[in-house]
Amino acid sequence: MPNHPATSLLATEKLEQQVDPRRWYALAVILLPILLNSLNTYMIQVALPSIQKSLNASFSDAQLIVTGFSLSLAVALIVSGKLGDVFGRKRLLLIGVSGFTLMAMLGGLTSNPTLLIVIRIVQGLAAALIQPQVLSMMQINFLPREKGLVFSIYGALMGFGFAFGLILGGILVNWNMFDLGWRTVFFFNVPFGILVLLCLPLLPESHGRRTQSIDWIGTVLIMSGLFLLVYPLSEGQKQGWPNWIWGCLILSLLFLFAFIAVELRKQKRGEAPLVDLTIFKQRLFGVGMASVVLIYLSMFSFFFILTYYLQFGLHFDAQATSLAFLPLGGGFFLTSLLSSRIVSRWGMVVLRIGALVTGICCFLFIVLLHIDAIHLLHMQYIVLLLVYGLGLGLVTTPLTRVVLGTVPMKDAGTGSGLFNTFMYLANSLGVALIGILFAASLRQSLAIAVLSDYVRAFSASLAACGGLALAAFVCLCFLSNRTEKLTESQ
Fold this sequence. Notes:
CATH topology of the largest domain: Growth Hormone, Chain: A
Structural class: mainly alpha
Helix content: over 70%
Number of strands: 0
Order of helices and strands: HHHHHHHHHHHHHHHHHH
Largest sheet: none
Shape: globular
CATH class of the largest domain: Mainly Alpha
Strand content: under 5%
CATH architecture of the largest domain: Up-down Bundle
Distance between the termini: 18 Å
Number of domains: 2
Number of helices: 18
Low-confidence stretches: 483-490
């Protein structure tokens, strides 16, 4: 039976009285750590080939500099969301930003690739304390009608961090201030991190369910399972796929199955599991998370291989690489900013179009490569990358809102942690798997491969990226337009 209009009006007025009138100022503060993390991620994306050359690192080491960060971030995200619910989101933000900034300083000082990988792993753990707290605050502190705008601002900021991070990363490496080269990409984060730390005390503290316990057994199982899955994939190509690699992969499956069994058993006993697996019974959440994995696998893989094709295949410097990424970032920023309005009018069809456009662009890229594999700063590539970015923004930004809109308020930290775990796990798996395909298709080491080798490897990798995006499109076709109405009503 529908609610009486007067009752609904009173409920709305009561809700408006409960929210903090300073929430928009707080939003500006809590988004600063997100910008810090986003800038860091994409600046290092451009600087990665320079880091590899400077430290005489292998292709596998370069992969681990990326996957080590994203994997540690992914495996810690679920529990860090719950830690924020229990111990306070502001406190976790302060700890996370402090650790992130310290690791950035140490990363700029190291000259050993193995040590840099370790530093990036610890930095990922620090970053894991940041993301769920921000998304939880966004879910809790704003009215239902405001969340569309809030998540659009969040997406636009991610788009800005992506576009500006790629440009700034190339400029800093090429600028070579004090002969520091790629190290300036790490040192840049230090004053920015200190600025964020000065602003965070202005936030009020917030908690979720403070009485809930932490499932440490589940945490150890899922962390072990994911580590044993991603690390061997990154090392396998370098080591020649010895038996221990396959042993680790088998162990990873055993750990992950054990994790599922433990979580289901805890839930059956009425105990608090690390992940409420029944959430995947919700059609929206299950299909949405499958779409998240597929589209982010495609996206992060594309970024990684494009960077290596430009800097190793075409011998672009870091600044020219930044310019090549600029139209992509600009398109992503534009549609991220407008996505809330577009989706409110047209519904889920917008996400489907975004995924479809992204996939088609990957295959068109292959066609252009076989026409002109050298001039990636010419108009045809600029337009294609712009359209790719537009499509990417249409699917990724509203997808965040759609998926998180299904999570109950009391479990906002856990839900946001789960969402981000899947996203960053897609980053780790994407770089590891596309690295295997790229290296196998290259058939030569990076140093001695010629342009035709890079075109072959890049084309094979692009086909995989396009296929993943089209698979995301298929998943999104199972969501009806009522999905968007559901998120607006919460």
